[in-house]
Amino acid sequence: MPHGQAASDSSHDLPEPGRVAELERQVQALRAELLEAQKMTALGELVSTTTHEFNNVLTTILNYAKLGLRHTDEPTRTKALEKIYGAGQRAEKITNSVLGMARNRGAEAAPTDLSALVAETLVLLEREMQKYRVQVETSYETERRSMVIANQIQQVLMNLLTNARQAMPRGGRVIIRVAEDPQAGTVDLVVRDTGEGIPTESLPRIFEKFYSTKSGPDETGKGGAGVGLSACREIIEAHGGRLRVESKVGVGTAFTLKLPVAQETVLAPTPKLGLPISAASNATA
């Protein structure tokens, strides 16, 4: 290309239908790149949260180890060992949660226990919720699994939980519910907070890209960019699901993820040797 000549868009050389198809392809590619960038941002926040959690555990272990070394009386040393043991159990929970998330890094949808996914996520956010005086309540009302890409749903869940915590600067409650909706053929994951609520005029716009009701990131560096909820909706809709929101100022906000139920095969009973299935069933009745 001669120096100073601008690169041309190859779509201009195509007939009109081909140009539209090429532009649509470019838009889809840009959306995929944006989603991947948002995933990396979420991963960075997760690494930061996990590192902070491990640092808290190590601080506890070191402080009580020093206490046990300084004092030789049995009650003090027993207390120190109990605290160290408790911190070790906490570290084990964090490690298991991180390993669970690592197992969920696949790119293919698979039958997923949403209740277990919630539990793993809450381990990493437990101290953050405690710090901001947020009580978390869970209600697991179904064992039915959902057909999803687990790490993407976990990304959505962490975003919604962070939003809920930020909506309650003076503390409050988060209620998480997992239940089946047989009529809709979905497993529903609901995240409800008792926070400030979203103003009526803002509610229709919260899923728009780069729209945010926040002035900027909080002291933890999270939120305010306006890409979180937009990405959440795209992820849920890509799963064939829906993301709904209800909110009332001064009462709180509830986000509902309606995700497809996994169609798991139920194996037929093994017939007794020499008997057809119907006869075997009668024999065991």
UniProtKB/TrEMBL annotation:
Keywords: ATP-binding, Kinase, Nucleotide-binding, Phosphoprotein, Transferase, Two-component regulatory system. It is an enzyme of class 2 (transferase). GO terms for molecular function: ATP binding; phosphorelay sensor kinase activity. It catalyses: ATP + protein L-histidine = ADP + protein N-phospho-L-histidine. The keyword Mitochondrion does not apply. It comes from Pseudobythopirellula maris. It comes from the Bacteria. Gene3D superfamilies: 1.10.287.130, Histidine kinase-like ATPase, C-terminal domain. InterPro entries: HATPase_C_sf, HATPase_dom, His_kinase_dom, HisK_dim/P_dom, HisK_dim/P_sf, Sig_transdc_His_kin-like_C. Its EC number is 2.7.13.3. This is histidine kinase. Residues 49-263 form the Histidine kinase domain.
